[in-house]
Amino acid sequence: MKPTLFVLAAGMGSRYGGLKQLDGLGPNGETIMDYSIYDAIKSGFGKVVFVIRKDFEADFREKILSKYEGHIPVEVVFQSINDLPEGFTCPPERVKPWGTNHALLMGKDVIKEPFAIINADDYYGRNSFEVMARELSSLKEGETKHYSMVGFMVGNTMSESGTVSRGVCETKDGVLTSVVERTTIEYDENHDIMFTDENGNKQLLDFETPVSMNFWGFTPDYFDYSEKRFVKFLEEKINVPKSEFFIPTLINELVETKTAEVKVLKTDSKWFGVTYSEDRPEVVAKFAQLHADGTYPEKLF
Questions:
Q1: CB atoms near residue 170 (< 10 Å)
Q2: Which of 13, 77, 63, 72 is nearest to 38 (CA)?
Q3: Is the pLDDT of residue 275 over 80?
Q4: DSSP element (H, E) containing 100
Q5: pTM of the predicted model over 0.85
């Protein structure tokens, strides 16, 4: 069975200043998602599932989904801050979505096979899809608790325009031993890479430190772990307005308790994305070059 690609496209795009999922950045108005879907098809994925917000469904179907018809089967699911387990009610002051692992939970009813999950607004490169598709396709039917992630060097994932969030990883023999979501990674005045720790102190990160760019590979049993952990998260933080249920939070717990193993997949792909509006011109130039050098055809679809 071919693996599924699950695309997180429900983000509010607050730092960028708009719905960057629908922003045309390629020479013919291609979105970053278009390149991801093209690379996924070429790499052997068999279906794409998008999680979006209901309020931009019409634009999404018209501008995005229509171009994939005839190329790969597509499904859409929706993330809402009111979609909570029985016994929980969203606080009236809550505006921010519940985070990436909550968005992932929206796919439980439509994904029954090994799947990869990516951000809609990140460019990952063809080779990253190839190594992930190869890994997921190698899993035995019914296999569980063997997950994977594509690792990128933090120095290849930075923005010159402001702070970024990354899952900072530690590995041993190609297997993940810990991942911690760091939300304030940035360059300092010497162009060293720094993050702010839990105590408010600045810490140095080596250029080659592996980080998660939210390109994970899972089997469907991960949904069950997510449901259980989300209840615990809500019990602790439902009244914290900006709290989020991150994928690395659960991954780290599963790894530390030896409940699951996460293989770190090496790739020669270079990540880039539009975190801030100031990043846009550079990304446009990069896509133009990728078409010019033949990495992509004149038109993707």
A1: 13
A2: 72
A3: no
A4: helix 100-105
A5: yes
